[in-house]
Amino acid sequence: MCRMLSYLGKPIAVEELLYRPDNSFIKQTYHPKYMSYLLNLAGFGIVAWDTTSYNPELPYIYKTTNLPFYDENLWNLSFKINPFCFLAHIRGVSYSENQVVSNQNVHPFMFEGTRIALAHNGALIDFETMRYDLLEYVHSSYQKQIRGTTDSEWIYAVFMSQLLKCDPQQKHETHSIIQSIMNTLKIIRDVREKHHITTASPVNLFITNGDFIAATRFVFDFGWQPYDAEPSTHFSYHSLWYTYGDAYGFYDSSYKMKESGKKTSIIVASEPLTEDTTTWIEVPEYTILLVRREDDEIKIISQDIVL
Amino acid sequence: METAELKKALSETRLCKYLTSAEIEVLLTYCKILQFEMGKELLHQGKKTAGIFVILSGTAIMTAKILGAGTLDLGTLQRGDFVGETSLIERTPNTISVTAAQVVQVLFIAGTYFETLALLFPETKYHISKAVAEDVCLRLKELQKKISFYILQSHMIAKSFFGEVMQSLTWPHEIKFEEIGVSHEQFRRLNFFKDLTDDACDTLFKLGAFIATANLCPIIKQGETTSACYIILRGAVQSSIIQDNKYAKLAVLPPLKFFAGSSYIDGSPSVIDFSTCEKTILLKLSDKTLQFLQENHITLWYKIFDELCLSFVSLENSANKLGIRLNSELYNR
User: Fold this and answer.
1) Could you tell me where in chain B the CATH 2.60.120.10 domains are found?
2) Domains of chain A
3) CB hemisphere CA count around A266 (13 angstroms)
4) For testing the chain B interface, which of A302, A305, A307 should be mutated: the one with the most B CBs within 10 Å?
């Protein structure tokens, strides 16, 4: 299981979320609270939007296969970057010489010429069997941009292609994003069916362009895994949580969102950033969550995924 | 308090209503009487509790910090009330804090003692679990009412006529064990079954009915009165609250989880709807089977009851979470 962290709201120094809380994002690489038998050591990536930066519509992008808790550059940058929106990902893969650990496989993915980034927490079982059947659903301009070996980058390519269809004007309205995610999941379901793949495969996606964050909590064929299978991250629902308030910081001796009548900032993450989860809400299974800013307030929309 | 007074106080609590005088005496022998000064916390929201607190004297205030709503006052606990059972049974952090409003005396049933009861005095543990399950069912009904009212007022999308027709066409059908695609040996290695004796396992397979269902197949409808219970073998089941054909999801139950309608506990119609959310295989234990197990295979029956008690506690927690979510999100609009 990988880990993902996203934020939308008042500008915040990313170190406040990456390093400070007792279950900080960087700590989750070597001491994850959930599924602790698999560490997340196969790469760190972040995309971050800052209105005060040059070309503010483009995010800062930082990706590395270095272990983030030894990464001095990341530590130094985290004090300086003060974005209003970001998406970070740490990659966790099984401990096997077959795994490809490279910069091309580090999330979030963001194709050249696009403004949308995607990170994935999950795994499509038997992806090698279905990979090239997805090609017909990928727009030609994205086909040549797939550089890595992950199922995640292919999901991104399919999603971006569906978004082109649903939203040719690239307005990125809520309904077109949700529809594109649903279409992407349906395409994957159909390709799985074509190859008689019936083993559970989790697909938690995080998608953002700086204006919205969309996240899914979903598993194909949930509850169907070999009876004699060892406990594995690859069959179960991966967690997804959020918390909101005025601003995230150290209040009343713990890290949390400052209470406010208004929702001005939100964190959506694969696990809470603190041991105390009192002020976090868990997103239920088979759900799409979409958050976006409207009139200086965060609007939270959730919808059941029924394919 | 003197022992006689303690026994009397305990016998008046909801938790001990099924306990005999001898069982209460056993409780008093092995459990501690604790005293909390005014302002001291019995439970802290977000932390796990090591046992159940039964209030013997004094009062305590329940509060909960809710995202977006601040700290809410949830009422007062007094003599006879108990708290901490959800954390103990589900092994999850407390969802509320409880603070002594004056000097409070409690009987503290430690989790370790609760587990030991299963080995030494299983009937006593069952009596306590039954009282807990009844309490949880009552709270679940209250939550269901509140959530239904919220759904009624909201602009959630109702299920389409087509969806209803499709659902009505998907009915479960009985299959043979051989059709599940698993050997007895593989089955015996699964959670719950691996702790059963060969005899208990064979009894379950012989008396239970293996049911195969398509996706979106109703198993227990909200409002239905059925005392049967189900074990999910493959696939998953969605628990929901329905109002005016609008569905609000509670939780997804994965393989090897148990579920039953509230009729199983108190004979009332189920306040929760259970439908499959994947192609699913279930083991159904009818009310007659459960009755037979209670009379002839009591150890197995206790184990099943423990699992069902856990499922009701989990449902209550899910209903609490749904209530919070409905106040934060625009859900299925």
Assistant:
1) 3-120, 144-328
2) 3-304 (3.60.20.10)
3) 29
4) A302
